[in-house]
Amino acid sequence: MKRKDRAIKKRNGRQAGTLAVIDIGAHSIRMEIAEPSPGGGMNVLETLSQPVPIGNDVFTKGRIKADKFILVAKILKDYRRVMADYSVSSCRAIATSAVREALNKDIFIDRMLKETGIRVEALDSSEEIRLIYLSMRNLLRGRLGNLKNSVIAMIGTGSSHVCLLDDGMLRKAESFRMGTIRIYEELGQPISKSSMVIDDIVDSIVELLLRSFPRLPGSLVAVGSAPRSLLKMAGRDGSDGVDTISRDDFERISRTVERTAPDKLVGEYGMSDLDALGLIPCCEILSGLMKASGAGAVLIPETNTRDAIIEDMLRRKPEDDPFEPEIVSCAKFLGEKFCYDVKHAAAVSKYCLEIFDAMKSVHGLGRRDRLLLDVAATLHDAGQFLNNRQHHKHSHYLIRNSQIPGLSSNEMEIVAVVARYHRRGLPKTSHPEYMQLDSDERVKVLKLAAILRVADALDRSHDGKFGSLNLKFAEGRMIICPDATTMDMASETMALRAKSDLFDDTYGIKVEFQ
Amino acid sequence: MSAEFKFGKQYLINRDLSWIDFNSRVLDEASAQGTPLLDRLKFIAIFSNNLDEFFMVRIAGLRKQLDAGDKGTDASGLPVQEQLDRAREKVLDLTSRQYSLLNNELLPALRQKGLFLLKRNEWDSAERSEIGRIFRKMIYPALTPVAVDPSHPFPVLNNCAIEIAVRLRQRNSRKTVRALVEVPSVLPRFIAIPSRRFPGAGKVHVFLEDIIMEFVGELFSGCEILDTIPFRTTKDMDFTIDEEGVADLLSHIQKELVGRRSRHALRVEFIKGQGGALEKWIMERLEIGEDCRYVVEGPLHLANFFELIGKEAKPGLVEEEWRPLPSKAFKEGENVFDTIRRKESIPLFLPFQSFDPVVRLIEEAADDPSVLAIKQTLYRVSGNSPVVAALRRAAENGKQVTVIVELKARFDEGNNIQWARKLEQSGAHVIYGIPGLKIHCKALMVIRREQGGIRRYLHLSTGNYNDKTARVYTDIGYFTANEDIGADISALFNVMTGYSSPPASWRKIAAAPSDLKEKFISLIDREARMSSPHSPGRIIAKMNSLVEPDLVEHIYRAAHAGVKIDLVVRGICCLRPGIGTDNIRVTSIVDRFLEHSRIYYFANGGNPEYYLASADWMPRNLYRRIEIMFPVEDGETRSLLDQILKFQLNDRMKGRTLMPSGLYTESDKTGKYDSRRSQKLTYELFRRESQERKIQAQPKPL
Fold first, then answer.
1. Which residues of B touch A50 (CB under 8 A)?
2. How far is it, in rounded angstroms, from Cα A299 to Cα A147?
3. Backbone angles phi and psi of B404, in degrees to 5
4. What are phi and psi of A378, to 5 degrees?
5. Which of B499, B505, B519 to substitute to test the interface with A, most A CBs within 10 Å?
6. Residue A146: what pLDDT?
7. A357, A349, A425: which is closest to A381 by C-alpha?
């Protein structure tokens, strides 16, 4: 009983007391300690920050050097002391671009765990985007009105992401292995000589965005500590949590940045050395995006990843992901990119979810798996973009090599494998894409793919003819009683017979029409 | 701002000469007729103690500058050699005044009161034989005579110790030999001898070195003593550590302490009329010039008079004790955290009020199950400090105790290392300072988990967590549970422990070295901007020392803009007032308590701001130390600060005013202005307050 209580406490953030979040970035390590405040939300108790140039190692040599192992371990041990001061009950330590890309990532994570007891989790860029986006949306809630269509630039020191917001929904996110400090490290050149190269890099980014989104939305949001420094230069205190810099002001500030040595900026505007150094690339990126989008101002919210993680930790049920609609939206955008059949995808996805929900007690899967099924259903035919022959295999390849913000690479892998089995052969031990999953994941794939095959069969004619499936269960059978019985269901009946094989295998339930 | 104002050296006074003037004010207190005799004697001792430190640090520094061939001048335009010359001149003048006061006024007056201090030539035969007995029993075993000859080099002398040089001859030889005997500092300097010579006294006191000189022959059997003279050396005790290259600050300082003995001598003191061959020999052996030779009336080492005062203090000879009063805010039986939370902030005025609430805060924190952690800066803590004891108990009770120890506290390093080790043994996390910065801010933070979440309780102070100095230094402590200050102080602790870089900005406090100086300048400049002929600006700044030339300049600019400025500066004041404006007044208060609090007041156009700080306006405070300044926002404390500042500005008894010539007016020695003595008025203020409380607290009769 006691153990169970504790488990609940841990999951249920509100009772968990103080929380800590450690963020191992490319150039600094930061920690925030917070507690849920009685009036809701959270109360930040401590903010610590130490510069550590891990990025320098990784971006130039590919791996984290031994001295940084020692340094990071020392800082994490120090942080543990501060955590003890507040008797922190749960801690999440994440690492972003530098550790994520380091060849010796796994050994680094293992060493940190052994030496400090802190489990560092290397965050996928899609997860990073999700966190930043959520904290930004929280902050901008109510003010998103004229931001329904916007470009969101998330500018970090080691990596950056650009997201496009279309009609209030996230449509696309592109990650770049380019950051405000990284750019110097990779170039290995003095700042003065770097500006041409920075120009070129920014141009190529903008071009890439324009290719998939010919008309960029007309407003611009910039997130990150370098953009926040721009607010300082504009003389805004950001006390409101968000502030806007007009295009004219932005251009004026850019010129100041170009002309002023970074160390001067530090003294004059009270910013960190890293932010000051990163301002030139930051301004270049923003000015490129501003030109391409025609935005008249840039909106800068005072958010950071740590706040978003704390909000995540405080959320009552971790599976209640407020980001879910964005994931679905991005999946659809990806479908569009591969010229998918919108109607068919929507129908299959709808049938999938109806079956999934009706079978809850049988498959025992959770909300997150429902989302994966939804995405797999949306994208199952994406492979037809390459060739109709073997298109299930092409779907697999395309999905696993795409990025959907909010889905980890592991989840993308599952989605890809589920989509791969939407037709033809069933999973076999000789299939490497299937076998590389662990056994729990394989079971999950079987359960989800079984539903997807049935749902796909039910829209054999690609016309989404059924409003509701009206599922009934009786003696090992699932009976589909569509609301419109008069219509022609011959092709669906035939397809169902062929594609309910996995369903029968997996659940021991036969599928039939009424 | 007047257009012609151009800041320059004429606005400044040399800092070391200004310091000597401060010490002169200390000496001045020894001549105050209205003050009881032993209190006056105490100022003689303080004067000497101060002067010793001055030689060890400041004169040492100037000498080093000179040796390094420094041809420059200080901010006031004096070359190094001239600073040294003028300092010597002033010191000679002051010490002769000091000895004249001691020998011609205080000691004879004390005899009148029955306190006899006999010189060697005044002993009678009965006394001499008693002294001889004491010599053989108590003193002889502690002596280590050192012969100096070609095979025994001149020894390393202990800093500030009295040495006796002896010239002697073996009875069967014609050769003279020289030897040194150090007067042991472990023995009392004043030895009481029973005597019936002076009716009513019952005893007399004699000097330890006199006894040793009298019986020194017993140390050298078979020798004839030709000559003995006492002398004393003061050495260079200043050291700067190249901390960048020091891996372990603790062991480095331990080594440094050992190394100090062999430092260069800067001053040698002899007694007038005893000179001769031995004196010349000592000068040669110490390899120092005439300008380091100081001849005094005698006796040597007057700082030792503290010992006699301690032994003989009794009503009539010392001013009645001003017993530290209990703070009315803290009630018996009420949890100290509840008290602070209820009131949000509580000031504590030391030494008028008792230091107990600070100890109580740590003690209650040690036993409170809701307390998670205690963090504190410690610097110059007394040996058996109740603060350290309470912290140890907290650590033993499983609290997270973090103590930041400043090992670089001058002359106190040895002491600091001892209790730092003890704390570590109890499980506290002890951090030894930050390379390159001395931690001078005084902060205590208790982290407590309460119903509504984590709450931080703070005690910030202008002075150290030292229960001993808390009885002599006027400091202001400030208990608060203010969230913003709490957030700032925890961030500051993270900087001091090396866990984090400083935050980009503070919420409420200002801190050195990051932004304290800028904060002072912006506050002064704002006052200047807001000042108009109809409503002139107002600044009152109370501190120990004012040296930083940039702040002098801004103060002058503000004065020229019409701001009325009062500076209450106890010690060094490098600002020369009265040049082109009468808006700056400098007051210095030297009284029984050492003025130590730092209070900064800015009228801010009718919306006044009050600050307390650990920092003076000195470069070392602003650039090389971690210091804090915090706002006082509660009305009760503000009105107390108002009253205390008012008392100080009106103190015509112990307050002196700095004049444009660089000289100070004299204090009132007759006691005519006793009713305006600020420290007494302050004490009375708190006494009335505590009595009110007593009356209120009396239970109603049934």
1. 499-501
2. 9
3. -105, 115
4. -60, -40
5. B499
6. 60
7. A349
Least trusted range by pLDDT, from A56-60, B43-47, B621-625, B666-670: B666-670
> pLDDT tens digits, residue range A92-121?
999 988 999 999 999 999 999 999 999 999
B366 vs B248, more confident: B366
| CATH class held by domain B336-508 | alpha beta
Rounded to an integer, the average pLDDT of B382-410 is 84
Domain B11-31+36-312 has CATH 3.30.1840.10: yes
More confident residue, B322 or B379: B322
The pLDDT of residue B496 is above 50: yes
User: Which residue, among A75, A67, A69, A156, has the nearest Cα to A106 in the 3D structure?
Assistant: A69
Number of helices followed by number of strands (H, E) in chain B: 20, 26
What are B696's two structure tokens? Answer: 């209120």
Q: Which of A98, A93, A88 is nearest to A119 (CA)?
A: A93
CA B93, B95, B99, B104 dihedral sign is positive
pLDDT of A270 reads 77
Task: Name the class of domain B511-694.
Answer: alpha beta
Question: Which residues of B are catalytically annotated?
Answer: 440
Tell if the CB–CB gap between A75 and B499 is shorter than 8 Å. Answer: yes
ipTM score? 0.77
CA distance B655 to B672: 13
Predicted local distance difference test score (pLDDT) of residue B436? 76
Taking an 8 Å cut-off on Cβ atoms, the answer to whether B499 and A85 are in contact is no
Instruction: Give the CA angle between residues B605, B609, B610 to the nearest 5°.
Output: 145
More reliable by pLDDT, A362 or A138: A362
| Residues of chain B in Cβ contact (below 8 Å) with chain A | 372-373, 375, 400, 402, 429, 447, 449, 452-454, 487, 490-491, 494, 497-501, 503-505
Distance separating alpha carbons of residues B427 and A84, to the nearest angstrom: 14
Tell me which residues of chain A have a C-beta less than 8 Å from any C-beta of chain B: 17-18, 35-38, 43, 45-51, 75, 78-79, 81-82, 84-87, 270-272
* Contact predicate A448/A377, CB 8 Å: no
Amino acid at the residue A30: R
Residue B56 DSSP class: I
Residue ranges of alpha helices (H) inside B497-634 are 516-530, 549-560, 619-623
Cα–Cα distance measured from residue B48 to residue B294, given in angstroms and rounded to the nearest whole number: 13
Q: A176-222: per-residue pLDDT in tens?
A: 888 888 888 887 766 666 777 888 888 888 888 888 777 788 889 99
Burial of A221 (0-12, 13-18, 19+ CB in 10 A): buried
The residue whose two tokens read 């050298």 is B220
In this prediction, residues A140-156 reach a mean pLDDT of: 78
Domain extent listing, chain B: 11-31+36-312, 336-508, 511-694
Q: Do B373 and A272 touch (CB under 8 A)?
A: no
| Domains within chain A, CATH numbers bracketed | 2-123 (3.30.420.40), 126-309 (3.30.420.150), 324-513 (1.10.3210.10)
The pLDDT tens digits for B543-597 are 999 999 999 999 999 999 999 999 999 999 999 999 999 999 999 999 999 999 9
Is a pLDDT exceeding 90 seen at residue A147?
A: no
CA distance A269 to B515: 12
Identify which of B176, B178, B137, B143 has the alpha carbon closest to the alpha carbon of residue B161. B143
> Alpha-carbon distance B356 to B377, whole Å?
18
Q: Specify whether the backbone of B156 is left (phi greater than 0), alpha (psi in -120 to 50) or beta.
A: beta
